[in-house]
Specification:
The complex is a heterodimer of chains A (159) and B (385). Chain A has 159 residues and is mainly alpha-helical. Chain A has 9 helices and 3 strands. A 3-stranded mixed sheet of chain A has the order 2-1-3. In chain A, a hairpin with a 5-residue loop joins β1 and β2. In chain A, α4 runs antiparallel to α5. Chain B is built from 7 helices and 26 strands. Classes of the chains: A mainly alpha (159), B mainly beta (385). Chains A and B meet through α6, α7, α8 and α9 of A and α1, α2 and α3 of B. Chain B: It comes from Lupinus albus (White lupine).
């Protein structure tokens, strides 16, 4: 009980881009490298504002950091699989941007594989839009490359 | 890489990490997204990052030959799809080889093909490297000439592997002369490094390689051959004793040899020479036991002699393998990823599927009589030169 009280008095307040305040324990906050370095710079009473991170993202990140401390390896695996199961590709991208900004290393390792699986059947055009990439090939350059790699396109579905 | 607008985007490192999980064929497709993505296909750092991930998915390189055909067809597939449908499996890039070529081995996605011809008592060998995933094949290596009056036909043994210390791929040839009186002349060992222009000599073998079914098997930076210690000039298998058998392991980094003992429980000399292979990421030893059983050992931890574990011990009767030369007629093809299933081929072109857990045997017969050879394989972007 005493421990709980001291934990809450040490808790760190995080303000998301959509104006929601989260109070997290130092144990959780320290697993976000960006917060860790901000705590050192700020005095502990201040609320830390997070650009690029909305309430949904932060709640998912906290859910992960709390849940992954499950007792057994198989329970952790099960939790990790469940954690991303219901997220759309768009949600995963937003979450991954937040995770990249906050530097939550475990999620940075875990999430790319899931995203990779979901983009496997996507078209080149979809990927440019999804990753926000400008096509820097001239039309003739692109046509030439597509011709060279035509073999890799057998059986590709449109998205 | 230019970004389209001010909307927050993924960090470049994160995108690279995502891409490193994709199969090669998709990376090639996606190379027309932008110049940066195209450049990743030949970026050494990305190629290594991708290989780390793809090494977790075991594939096979299959060589299919029909008794009548002069050509061989080489293709790759996953162990899973081979199990489900062993005779169609062909997902990435077929290669039709003429009868001069054989698949020597596969390492980090590169397949080493060995070509051989002989004329007027001179044998010629050369290699080519092929990456089936990116459909690229190297030119021929320089020729290795063998005097067949000294080194009989079929007695030159090859191996293919990767030397991490120099980041190079090496082919090793062991030229054997079983009749040489001087020990140092029994074997001559040559190394060809991918991209070089010659076969260079290294120290000769510390024992005499067993000729039967025995190419060098690559494991943990070493090539391994089954060999006979203190071999008496010209002698036959009948006179070899169990304590003479050894695995000679050539470290590809410093090109020196070590010797590994066989399982201590293997206490009598098998009727025919055993063979070794690499299956399920373990060095395996196959041998006949008293002409009644087929035995497979796995060296669970490579280089640790007391980690030899008996993997299976099955009677030929249970496998329904007949004939006089039962051991010769069984060719192990693969072990499933979880280690539960062993697949073999018999002399009748029948596939034998053995389930370890319940000691069950299944057989699948193929109407076109196809002989198969398999090597474990991964997909990679490594350039074959």
């Amino acid at each position: 009980m005493a421990e709980k009280a001291s934990e809450s008095s040490n808790s760190i307040s995080l303000n998301t881009v959509d104006g929601k305040i989260f109070k997290v324990s130092p144990t959780i906050a320290n697993q976000m490298q960006t917060i860790q370095s901000l705590i050192k710079a700020y005095d502990s009473s201040r609320v830390i504002s997070l650009p690029h991170v909305n309430a949904f993202h932060l709640s998912k990140i906290i859910e992960y950091l709390e849940g992954k401390s499950a007792t057994t390896v198989s329970a952790v695996k099960e939790f990790e699989a469940q954690f991303m199961k219901d997220l759309s590709l768009k949600q995963l991208k937003g979450l991954l941007i937040a995770v990249g900004y906050l530097k939550v290393n475990e999620l940075l390792e875990l999430m790319p594989k899931t995203v990779a699986k979901l983009i496997e059947n996507k078209s080149v055009e979809f990927l440019r839009k999804f990753f926000g990439i400008v096509n820097d090939f001239t039309p003739s350059e692109e046509a030439k490359i597509r011709e060279e790699i035509a073999w890799a396109f057998d059986g590709v579905d449109e998205d | 890489m230019k970004m389209a607008d001010a909307e927050p985007v993924l960090l470049n490192e994160v995108i690279v990490e995502i891409l490193s999980w994709l199969p090669v064929k998709l990376l090639v497709q996606f190379s027309c997204v932008c110049k940066y993505w195209k450049s990743l296909l030949s970026d050494p750092h990305f190629i290594k990052l991708h290989l780390q991930k793809s090494s977790k998915y075991a594939n096979l390189i299959l060589t299919l030959t029909t008794p009548s055909a002069r050509n061989r067809c080489v293709t790759s597939c996953s162990i899973g799809s081979f199990r489900q449908n062993p005779y169609i499996a062909s997902e990435h890039g077929h290669l039709l080889l003429n009868c001069k070529y054989k698949v020597l081995g596969s390492c980090n996605g590169l397949v080493c093909l060995i070509g051989s011809t002989h004329e007027d008592k001179i044998g010629q060998h050369w290699v080519r490297f092929w990456n089936p995933a990116i459909r690229l094949k190297s030119r021929k290596s320089p020729f290795l000439q063998v005097d067949l009056r000294v080194n009989e036909l079929g007695s030159t043994k090859f191996g293919f592997g990767y030397d991490k210390s120099s980041d190079t791929y090496k082919v090793v040839a062991v030229l054997c002369n079983r009749n040489a009186m001087e020990y140092s002349e029994r074997t001559q060992v040559k190394v060809y490094t991918m991209g070089d222009n010659c076969w260079r000599d290294i120290q000769s073998f510390p024992a005499f390689p067993i000729i039967f079914r025995n190419g060098g098997r690559f494991m943990n930076g070493t090539l391994n051959w089954l060999a006979i210690r203190n071999y008496a000039s010209g002698c036959d298998w009948d006179t070899v004793t169990i304590d003479q058998l050894v695995i000679v392991s050539l470290d590809l980094a410093n090109e020196t040899y070590t010797q590994l003992s066989l399982p201590v429980d293997l206490d009598e000399i098998p009727y025919v020479a055993p063979a070794i292979g690499v299956f399920g990421d373990c060095l395996c030893l196959f041998h006949d036991y008293q002409r009644t059983n087929f035995v497979v050992w796995q060296m669970k931890e490579f280089g640790v002699e007391n980690s030899w574990t008996r993997f299976v011990n099955i009677s030929y009767q249970h496998l329904r393998v007949g004939g006089r030369i039962k051991f010769f007629s069984l060719v192990p093809l693969c072990i499933s990823e979880n280690g539960d299933v062993l697949m073999m081929l018999n002399h009748n072109f029948e596939l034998i599927i053995y389930y370890r857990a319940d000691n069950r045997v299944e057989r699948a017969k193929y109407h076109n009589r196809v002989w198969i050879d398999t090597k474990e394989h991964v997909q990679s972007l490594i350039m074959p030169y």
